[in-house]
Amino acid sequence: MSATRDRLVDDYLARLDAALAGLPAERRREIVADVAEHIEAARAELTPGDEAGLRTLLDRVGDPEQIAADARGDQVPEPALGREGHETWAIVLLLAGGFLFVAGWLVGVVLLWSSNRWRTRDKVIGTLFVPGGLALPAFLLGLFLVTSTSVCTSAGISGSTPTRHCTSSGVPQWEHIGLLALVVGLTAAAIAAAVHLARRSR
Amino acid sequence: MVAEGLIAQLRRGTLQYCVLALLAEEERYGFDLVRALGEVDGMVTSEGTIYPLLSRLRRDGLVESTWRESDAGPPRRYYVATKAGRAALKAFDAEWSRFRDGVDHFLERKARA
Lengths: 202, 113
Fold this sequence. Notes:
The complex is a heterodimer.
Chain A: H1 2-19, H2 25-43, H3 51-61, H4 64-74, H5 85-96, H6 103-114, H7 120-128, H8 135-149, E1 152-155, E2 163-166, H9 173-200
Antiparallel strand pairs in A: 1-2
Chain B: H1 2-25, E1 28-29, H2 30-37, H3 50-59, E2 63-70, E3 73-81, H4 83-112
Antiparallel strand pairs in B: 1-3, 2-3
Helix pairs in contact in B: 1-4
């Protein structure tokens, strides 16, 4: 029955496809197609109805696992799945290296630009968002706290409980809010850039 | 046996050059190539493994392929050695002759002793 024979071939090709799992899709498809073509060419020489002959033919084509092993042996090793050490350090230092007197961030920038995992566009994003990493908004937050707390001073009249006077030191309120907004914005941008780089490094 | 394992390794290493030699002067399609290799007993243990090999040779630029219409059915992929492939074959040929003669020298010597 030609149905049985076709099923034999289909089963064989299915096993081959399964054995090739993990290889790049293009290569996998190619090898299955080539072997299928080979089987058809060989089959043309068999007498129709010769199932035993077909089975012998498939045996000669070989064990799908063996073919897959050969294909795998030829495979140029891909960069390790997941991030390599340098890329991880680049992201960490870009975010937090600024706390080490800016130098840490600079090292992060060097690692960023020397990596071959990121496109130039990603590298520019990583550098501009945000220069100094989280250290910049942290610094600005410090500024904010200093300028706002200096506004509140303890004024004490001897003999009575000290009262806290929070008066404006001459810096308009909106500047404080603006600074705070900038801190939040920069923090968000730095984290977003780090996440973007992390995703792009795979 | 040690000798068997070694021969298998040698076979693996040299098969690509046998293929290049067959493709150096004329183009062939897969099945035809396999059949030609089959002329020597044991050169091809599993016919299907020729295809990963041909794929690698193509990737390395030693072989190129063209699809051609065939009256016997669907289009076939024909393989032929490239200039680089023929150069690699020539280089191997020289190395192989030297190596083979070297080994033979000692083995023949031993047989005579």
